[in-house]
Amino acid sequence: MRLRKIRRLLAIVFFAMTTLLFLDFSGTIHHWFGWMAKVQLIPALLATNAIVVLTLLVLTLIFGRIYCSVVCPLGVFQDILARITSVKNKHKYTYSKAKSFLRYTMLVVFVGLFIAGLNSMFALLEPYSAYGRIASNLFAPLYIMINNGLAYLAERIDSYAFYSVDIWLKGIVVFVVALVTFIVVALLSWKGGRTYCNTICPVGTILSLFARFSLYKIRFDEQKCKKCSKCTKACKASCIDYNTQKVDYSRCVVCGNCLEECRFGALHYELRKKKSATPISESASSNDAVSCEEPVNTTRRSFLLSTALLSATAFAQDKIKLDGGLAELKPREKRKRETPLTPPGALSAQNFAQHCTACQLCIAECPNDVLRPSIDWQTLMQPVMSYERGFCRPECVRCSEVCPTGAIRLITREQKSSTQIGHAHWQGFNCIVLSDEVECGNCSRHCPSGAIEMVPLRKDDADSPLVPSIDEEYCIGCGACEYVCPARPLSAIYVEGHEVHKEIQ
Questions:
Q1: Residues 398, 365 contacting (CB under 8 angstroms)
Q2: How many Å apart are CA 336 and CA 343, to the nearest integer?
Q3: What is the 3-state secondary structure (H, E, C) of 442-466?
Q4: If we measure between CA atoms, which residue out of 369, 348, 356, 363 comes closest to residue 399?
Q5: H/E element, 271
Q6: The whole model's pTM is what?
Q7: d(CA 437, CA 439)
Q8: Where does 157-254 have alpha helices with state H?
Q9: Are 197 and 205 in contact (CB under 8 A)?
Q10: CA atoms within 13 Å, Cβ hemisphere of 442
Q11: Is 246 helix (H, G, I), strand (E, B) or coil?
Q12: Angle ∠(11,195,53) on CA atoms, nearest 5
């Protein structure tokens, strides 16, 4: 079946490239396919991207729920899991009535959580973000292990085609959430194929309201149907009742399995036709059966579908891991900040919390390991900045380029260099200049905005040690001073965040 093959090809491309966005630490995949994260429905809604939202809704009104079977990575992931678990018995499904009460209850809960500002709970149900957490927390470590193995082998033959990368478990909470999500989706896929899609997923429920009125639908030819039940047993959405020869279009994701299984040509994916006003005699209906059921031009339709889904692209810089020539530092304890730091482009902590769905894409793409999942229940799993492994370099705008929801607005390097996300504080009792009586000045030398100057501790003493003095008007909160500070277990200089970002005039 040509329709099924094209649908599978597009689904594989979207799934593979979206997954690699969360795995690829070099940034090359985002250079070509970063737009795929921005055509997901909920991220596009949060980013107020009207063009993407309207395009997806129009596609649903024309072709049905192809978004769920082509664009949504969690939807395609369910198909993969269902395929793996049904190798021995591919006719294991059966028709079941739609669980409308559960579906709409989950949708109401989803909308209620968003209105209430409980985005950490809201993010648990959003399908794109749920899959992003699975990919970045479960798949990424395996991907990096394979890469490091290839880097080791390449080094043995003097090749630099691969380079080794640290495997970093960014947060135990988000790891557990990702693991539980994976198990739930896997069990539901094994048991009932698209059960998660059609009972829990709010995006599937939203699109089902439009899919009922789609122009192209899978329809029965009652005269050709032998009621063999193969279409029902092959339907992962459990939406085909072969006894009544009806399809629940609100649950159908146009996967094409039923079309392939039907050996009698009784199923067609075709344009909706108006019912004839005059009855047709039995003889006429038998003679005109072939003419009434003209074959659909699947080539033209497939071309239009492919063009609509693959019509955009975005370009971004390759992600480069830089160390600035700094000496390797021993790990330090994570500092608790009174006001958490939000990335440049977030505008404010409130804007960031309201738009972020905790998909983890910015965390996966951060070249300096500054972003990590929050463990605060109010912002659970959303990215928070910390400077134990690196600092936020003024020339890097990677997170603003990849964010699909508008939680981090796209900014230029010039704008970032003048955006104050926080300001530095100095704690003299922890500074090695005073505690160990040695010269330092690391914070001043590495401050990219020139906001730190070394001044005598006692102005009237020529032999007084030099300590940092911070000009908060020029400090942008990048964390370079905190990162390079040699004091342990906590740095002597650290950054407190701003609730609302400021601009240096």
A1: yes
A2: 17
A3: HHHHHCCCCCEEEEECCCCCCCCCE
A4: 363
A5: strand 267-271
A6: 0.83
A7: 7
A8: 172-192, 195-199, 202-211, 230-234
A9: no
A10: 22
A11: strand
A12: 50
Q: Which residues, 6+ apart, have CB-to-CB distance to 282 below 8 Å?
A: none
Amino acid at 274: K
- How far apart CA 498 and CA 171 sit, in angstroms, is 24
| Tokens standing for residue 246 | 């009806």
Could you give the 3-state DSSP secondary structure of residue 135? helix
Q: Tens digit of pLDDT per residue, the chain (505 long)?
A: 677 889 999 999 999 999 999 998 888 888 899 999 999 999 999 999 999 999 999 999 999 999 999 999 999 999 999 888 776 666 678 999 999 999 999 999 999 988 888 887 888 999 999 999 999 999 999 999 999 999 999 988 988 888 888 888 888 999 999 999 999 999 999 888 899 999 999 999 999 999 999 999 999 999 999 999 999 999 999 999 999 999 999 999 999 999 989 999 999 999 876 554 444 344 434 444 433 344 444 444 444 444 444 443 333 333 344 444 455 545 677 788 999 999 999 999 999 998 999 999 999 999 999 999 998 888 889 999 999 999 999 999 999 999 999 999 999 999 999 999 999 999 999 999 998 889 999 999 999 999 999 999 988 887 889 999 999 999 999 999 999 999 988 899 999 999 999 998 7
C-alpha–C-alpha distance, residues 424 and 477, integer Å: 6
Task: Check residue 92 and give left, alpha or beta (phi > 0: left; psi -120 to 50: alpha).
Answer: alpha
> Do 404 and 361 touch, CB atoms closer than 8 A?
yes
Tokens of 496: 């407190």
Give the pairing type, strands 452-456 and 371-373: unpaired
Q: What is the dihedral of CA 352, 355, 357, 361, to 10 degrees?
A: -60
Rounded CA separation 434/371 (Å): 31
- Cα dihedral value 39, 373, 103, 47, nearest 10: -30
Q: Taking Cα atoms as reference points, which of 470, 439, 466, 445 lies closest to residue 455?
A: 466
Q: What is the DSSP letter of 418?
A: T
Q: Count the neighbouring beta carbons within 10 Å of the beta carbon of residue 439.
A: 10
N- to C-terminal Cα distance for the chain? 62
- Residue 22, exposed/middle/buried by CB under 10 A (0-12, 13-18, 19+)? buried
